[in-house]
Amino acid sequence: MALSVITIPCLSDNYAFILRCTDTGITAVVDAPEATPILAELKKQQWGLNLILITHHHSDHIAGIDELRAVTGAKVIGANLDKHRLPFLNTAVEEGDIISVGNSNAEVINTSGHTMGHISFVFNNDHKVFSGDSLMALGCGRIFEGTPEIMWDTLKKFIALPHNTMVYSGHEYTANNAKFALNIDPTNKLLVERAQNIETLRIKGKSTIPSMLELEMATNPFLRSSTPSFKVLFGMNSSSDLEVFTKVRTLKDNFKS
Ligand code: ZN
Ligand code: FE
Q1: What percent of the chain has pLDDT above 70?
Q2: For residue 77, how many C-alpha atoms fall within 13 Å in the half-sphere facing its CB?
Q3: Interaxial angle between packed helices 189-203 and 174-184, expressed in degrees from 0 to 180 and rounded to the nearest 10
Q4: Is the backbone peptide bond immediately before 210 cis, with ω within 30 degrees of 0?
Q5: What is the pLDDT of residues 77-111, one digit of tens each?
Q6: Please, which of 84, 113, 139, 162 could form a disulfide with 146 given CB 3.0 to 4.6 Å?
Q7: Any idea which ligand is nearest the CA of 58?
């Protein structure tokens, strides 16, 4: 049983991911910022498209869906909570639901905060999570509709996943996120090393996505909000994890790189 993934750069800094069950040939895409590059890759591989999985309603994640559906006949899966502002859904899902891409199953988790109704797809057996604009490489999505409390609850769901899970997030924001992370956590050796790797990848025009959750746990400032040695950096030793997360989110919102 195996799920292969092809990363498709879209628009200026978005990603779509084409998933393929190598046993059955069933193919899905996670998010569709625009149809053209996704259709081009499907054509190149000579694959059809069976499913479109949506993380959230922002146009840079859904604008290509109607065209993809029209050309391929793919069925669309998205959050029941967001049904009113998503393209037509063949299947509306909620937290705890299981969807399948051929022989690979994904659990739907509610990862609200960036938007209310944002979902992520956890392929437990394949050690992959598609996190849209909730957990991002060295970052987390800006809180547009939720509260810091809701976003922190979301991040805790990621922290609870096996740490060998690969995180596929929806944007190439990593280099900028690294500048912020280094600014507040400059003595973190793994972070310094990671920032160098990111720079090298970007110079070569390569994607920094996916990243392993284990590395996010050690370097992503938002996930480090519960780490005592991280709290000390802000003199917040006795503050709650949520208070530290809220502080980091506020600092990032005001950070000028
Ligand atoms: Zn978004
Ligand atoms: Fe986005």
Answers
A1: 100
A2: 21
A3: 150
A4: yes
A5: 999 999 999 999 999 999 999 999 999 999 999 99
A6: 113
A7: 1
Domain positions in the chain are 3-253
* Architecture of the CATH domain 3-253: 4-Layer Sandwich (3.60)
Contacts of 113 (CB under 8 A, 6+ apart): 134, 140, 141, 143, 145, 146, 147, 150, 151, 152, 153, 154
Closest to 75 in 3D by CA, of 99, 51, 39, 104:
51
* DSSP symbol at 171: B
Ligand 2 centre distance from Cα of residue 31 (Å) = 10
Question: What's the pLDDT tens digit per position in 44-76?
Answer: 999 999 999 999 999 999 999 999 999 999 999
**Residue found by looking up tokens 């909000």 in the block:** 225
Cα–ligand 1 centroid distance for 180 (angstroms) = 20
Residue 132: how many CB atoms within 10 A of its CB?
Answer: 28
Distance 8 CA to ligand 2 centre (A): 14
CA pair distance 35, 25, nearest whole angstrom: 21
Identity at 49, one-letter amino acid code: L
Collapsing DSSP states into helix, strand and coil, what is residue 129?
strand
List Cα–Cα distances, 239 to 15, 187, 188, 226, 228, in angstroms.
36, 21, 21, 10, 10
Please state the rounded mean pLDDT for residues 209-220: 98
